[in-house]
Structure formats: structure tokens, C-alpha cells
Amino acid sequence: MHLPAENGAITHTAFALFAEALTLQRQAYHANPVPGYQQRIADLTALAALISDNEAALVEAVNADYGSRCRFETRFSEILMVLEDISRTKKQLKKWLKPQRRHIDPLLFPTSGCKVLPQPLGVVGVIVPWNFPIMLAFSPLVAIFAAGNRAMVKMSENSGQLAQLLIKLAPKYFAPDKLQFFSDNNGSGPAFSAQPFDHLFFTGSAQTGKAVMASAAKNLTPVTLELGGKSPAVVAPDFPLHKAADRILWAKAFNAGQICTNVDYLFLPHGSEQAFTGLALKLVAQRYPDINHNDYTAIIDQHAYQRLQHTLDDAIAKGATAVNLMPGQTTAPGLRKFPLTLLFNVTDDMLVMQREIFGPLLPVKTYRDKTEVVNYINARPRPLAFYPFSHDKALQQFYLEQVMSGGVTVNHAILHVGQHDLPFGGIGSSGMGHYHGYEGFLTFSKLRPVFYQGAFNSVSMLLPPYGKLATKLTDWLIRLKGRG
Fold it and tell me: Which of 73, 78, 226, 273 is catalytic?
């Protein structure tokens, strides 16, 4: 077991705490390695009850961690999404659990058979970010429990109130050998990722993801990494600009832009900048007449707020034109409300075009030809999401074939994430592996291949010393298979 030396006694204490919990859960796994259908349904039902029974407290805890988090957005994008995921999973689980019959060559292995059995991995570690802490803790748990596993969940250091609440609530619904939550005390993440889990699931930045993967590699622990990056949107000339503005700004304002799949930069047809700006100003004024209202979420902490301000200042200093979409509004002291802002004339030497924004800044680039868009995106790391806006089916297909990303929403933004029958995951620097729905069940299952020897053992005809019969049979089979 790899024991990290950094961070001194605090890390060693955290490591011991996590190791003790893992030992408890692994012992329980060995005592019951393949829970039945009814047990898995009971676990999913308990997960739903934990959320439903304590909805108000969960929403308030997230609000407290943010300082001001839109309660509707928490209920809609976290509470509702997870409960819907649980409901759908329970309806599909019996089908997912069925052994899969696989083809066998009757000439080589007559009377024998092959099956694939989906079986639990064991104990799964989950590392949760702060931006959607309920959904990004519980959505993996839905798939983990459906697959019959046990789980240890480490919350973000920015989710202290929620973490303490979940630590208090979880024992009322689950035994500690099934599920435990942990807060992040003084940077205990390295001690968590160093545990020899049967699988480690991480959601967060690419930089931290690299460290998590490196730590897991010391134990040969397989990982699923859900990262981020710069997800682009492109509006085609045929698509109504007012609809594009309506949908893109909805996404950019949701959670104040603190979403890994958010529109990170936008391509507009050359010459449409002024019209888009006018539409944007009107839409934002209608939706957010008061920046201090709870409908508009705060930036998570002062460090993140200062990072966004520095990013904006850097862009302006290097020649970008900034358009504050909330003009004349003043943020109340201590609320950390950052105004939605468009940035035109952006260049690649600006910070805003070099790293994931994770906030309400929207750089806008213009183009004259679709190949400009494709070439620009493909010259950079593959994004987690891509958002083409066009009613032209041929153009849609062009972008789908020419631009690779983790996922796609056509003619809107973000919505593919909420489709529970679609797998979610990145590619390249935006992540690896999938979850949600059946793909989540597969991620946390071992698809165990099993060969059942039948009454007739064909291998007995091919034993050494190899004589004429073995040679003739092999020659005949090679000729037969060679003809297709």
C-alpha cells in the first residue's frame, strides 16, 4: 500500500482513517461478494430516501458552502437529477443483471457454452468536486450500488457544511461497511487516492486528475476521470441568433458558469457580434435584474473570485473588449457575485483562452468558414463537450464527424449531461471512462467471462504426442476458417 509522505502527521492520520474504513468495507465485500437483485434495489431505495427525507437540509448546506447558491438550481440540477437517475436505474436493473450468453464455435467446442457475468468490483472510492456536490457524489453511487459495490466518498474542501451533514446522515440509512462519507480535512485528498480501492472515480480538474491517476497507479487501481477543459459552441449562419443567445446564456449563467461542461468559448458568424450583444444584454436584464438575488449563484470562494477578476483584467490589458451584461449593478460586500461578461477580440495569449474559465466569462470569436472552427478546436486538447447550433443536418453531421469531444448537445448546451440513458465521460485530457445509466453499471462491474465445458471434451482429441488425427483436424479447421 502506497503511503504518501507529504503533509506530515495530518496526512498519516487521514491515511489511517481511510485505510480502516477500506478494511471494514473489503471484509464485508468478501462476506457477500455478489449481492442479489433485492439487496441492490434496497440500497438504491435507501439512497433515494436519504436525499428525499433531507432535501431541505441538503439544499441549505450547499447554499451555506457557496455563500449564496440558487436553491432552484440545486433542487433542479442535483436533487431532481439524482432521484430521476435512481428511479430509472431501478426499472432497468433486472435486465442489466442478466448473464449475457456469448457465441461459441460448435465445431471446436460442441456441447460447451460461454457467458459473461456482471459482478461487483468490491470497494469504490469517489472523489467529489464542489460545483455540484450532491449530484457528483450521488450519481456515481447510483451506478456503484446498482453494480453491487460498496463505497467511500470524499467530499471537497469547499463543501464542508455538506460533508458534515452527509457524515451525520449516512449512518441512518447505510451501515459503515456499505457507505461512508468523509470531509476533506487539511488536504487529505492524496491520502484518499493512495488507498488500494478496486476502482477510483474522480471528478475535477485535469491537473488534479493527473495527480489522482499517478497515485492510483502505485496500487494499479483503475480510474475513471471526469475532467474539464475548454468546451466550445459554434452558431451557424442558419440558426436564429436570438435562440442561440437564449440557450447559451442560460447555460453560462447557470451556477454562475461553474460547470465543467459549460460553454467555455463561442464562435459566431463574422458580423453578428453587435446583434448578439444586444440580445444578450436584454436577456440578462430580464432574468437577473438584481445580481445580489439568490437566483444568481455566487463564486465558490474568494480565491476563485480573484482568479476570475485576474483573468478578466489580463484579457482587457491584452486588447480584449469586455461587455458587462449586468451594467450598473453592484455586488453586495462579501457575496462574491461576478457579473456575466462577454469578451470580444480575444487572442490565444490571454489567460481566458488558455485555461478552463469555470465562471461567467464568455470569450467570443468570429469565423467566416466552418473549417476555421474545426481547425481551431482540433489544434487544442479534446474538450469535454461541444455545442454546434444549426438546423442544417449536413452541417450538424460535419461538426459531429470533424470535432471529437466527450459529449455533444446539438442546438442547446449542457443538456446531454442530464440524459440518464446516455453515457457521460470525457476523452483525452477531458477524461477517461463513462458513467450514467447502463454504461455506469458496466464501469463498476467486472464483466466476468466464463466458459462452461460440455459433455464432449474436444481437447481430448488434440493431446500430445500429436499424431495424424490432431494434424488432420487442425488442417481441416484452418482450411474451413480460411474460406470465411
Answer: 226
